[in-house]
Specification:
Strand order of the largest sheet: 2-3-4-1-5
CATH topology of the largest domain: Rossmann fold
Number of helices: 17
Order of helices and strands: HHEHEHHEHEHHEHHHHHEHHEHEH
Number of strands: 8
Number of domains: 3
Distance between the termini: 39 Å
Radius of gyration: 24 Å
Strand content: 5-15%
């Protein structure tokens, strides 16, 4: 059968981009309380005072990054009416950064032209920090706000979260010239709990929790997007409530709910249907769920990939469930083979805990009494090892291991 002609006619969608992650809504509904807290925390900035350091936490798809973008845009806009104020926002995503050193390098390079950027290795940490302080001392802004999204990727190596919030207090950046503030955003609840005491004191002046959306909130979000995304009348009456209920029960993630609604519409379009039905939503759910798991695996930082690699090798040797010490031994071999930073066993135990929270691993506690003590055994959760292998094989950083 030959190729069909491309055509712009679409009986289902008016603007499907409205349902994508990249879409910036005009307003963030169902997050009034969090937005109010956010703006209140930044009130000192607009008055010219020292910023308060803010820590945002909550699972993926609950509005943390969108809220940050909206609040920063409003701050940039409103500062223009004050002659004494010049706020600069430095925004990076830490997803693929596994250490404070890598974060500092990326921050330094934010201030540099392409030909002057520094490599990710080769400089002592103190030198890289001094590069950053020099740039901050030279910047003409009254305030610099650093937004570190997905900062949990750095694990226990949280020195940057101590150094940066205290850069004014430690004399690295004179506050009378430039006032420095930090906004950390984490998808991982345990990351906040595992921060060192000195970092909690420095970073968490204000903490804002973004809880999962419930089904009613997700329904309102979907109706707002669906009005612009779909042709009038193509959605069966119960399609939006069903998508909201499924996503609310599964994760409370608006991202998942929007993907489910889009996939149901996409199935209708691919079959030349003129209506999106409940049956299509139910058909779309396992497709979306499988794709989300793979996307989540791909988005994990290198150290988490190496931890999964260790579990995979033990699985292939039929040595699961395994103790964390056995996992660490294989992890260390893999990290050394690809010349990655070898983290401590404690850091890898934290990675194992994070992977368990995401549903990739299962853990069982064993207690052998006073002599044997207690320990945990790890194995794969409700996920195919074949999928793990496929994702890791496709990772540029880990491909040498296969």
């Amino acid at each position: 059968m030959g190729l069909e002609r491309f055509t712009a006619e679409d009986p289902i969608f008016v603007d499907e981009d409205v349902l994508r992650d990249s879409h910036r809504p005009e307003g963030l509904i169902e997050r009034d309380q969090e937005l109010t807290e956010y703006q209140s925390s930044l009130k000192p900035v607009i008055k010219g005072a020292r910023p308060r350091n803010i820590f945002l936490y909550g699972q993926t798809g609950v509005g943390k990054s969108v809220a940050t973008q909206m609040v920063m845009d409003r701050l940039r806009e409103d500062q223009q009416q004050y002659d004494y104020l010049d706020v600069e926002v430095v925004d990076i995503v830490c997803k693929n950064l596994s250490s404070s050193y890598q974060v500092v390098v990326k921050l330094v390079n934010q201030f540099r032209d392409f030909e002057d950027k520094i490599p990710t290795t080769g400089y002592p940490p103190d030198t890289v920090y001094e590069f950053l302080w020099e740039h901050l001392r030279e910047v003409e802004a009254t305030h610099v706000l650093f937004v570190l999204d997905e900062v949990d990727a750095i694990g226990n190596d949280d020195d940057i979260l101590y150094q940066l919030p205290r850069s004014n207090d430690n004399g690295n950046v004179p506050p009378e010239e430039t006032k420095v503030g930090v906004i950390g955003i984490s998808n991982n609840f345990t990351f906040r709990d595992n921060l060192s005491a000195r970092v909690k004191d420095s970073l968490c002046d204000e903490e804002i929790h973004f809880p999962p959306y419930d089904a009613n909130q997700l329904r309102n979000i979907l109706y707002q997007r669906a009005e612009k995304a779909f042709v009038d009348g193509v959605l069966e009456e119960d399609v939006v409530p069903l998508c909201a209920a499924m996503a609310g029960q599964e994760s409370g993630s608006a991202r998942q709910a929007l993907k489910l609604l889009f996939k149901a519409g996409d199935l209708a379009r691919s079959r030349d249907m003129t209506e999106v039905t409940e049956d299509l939503v139910r058909e779309a759910e396992p497709l979306v769920k499988g794709g989300q798991v793979e996307n989540e695996l791909e988005s994990l930082p290198t150290q988490s990939h190496l931890t999964l690699y260790a579990i995979l090798k033990l699985h292939e040797r039929d040595e699961l469930p395994a103790k964390s010490s056995d996992v660490y031994q294989v992890y260390q071999q893999g990290a050394e083979f690809i010349n990655a930073d070898v983290k401590t066993d404690r850091t890898i135990r934290d990675r194992l805990s994070q992977l368990k929270l995401k549903g990739f691993l299962e853990v069982e506690e064993h207690n052998e009494g006073p002599k044997g003590g207690s320990y945990y055994l790890y194995e794969f959760g409700d996920i195919r090892p074949e999928m793990i292998r496929e994702v890791l094989e496709d990772s540029m950083r880990l491909e040498e291991l296969f």
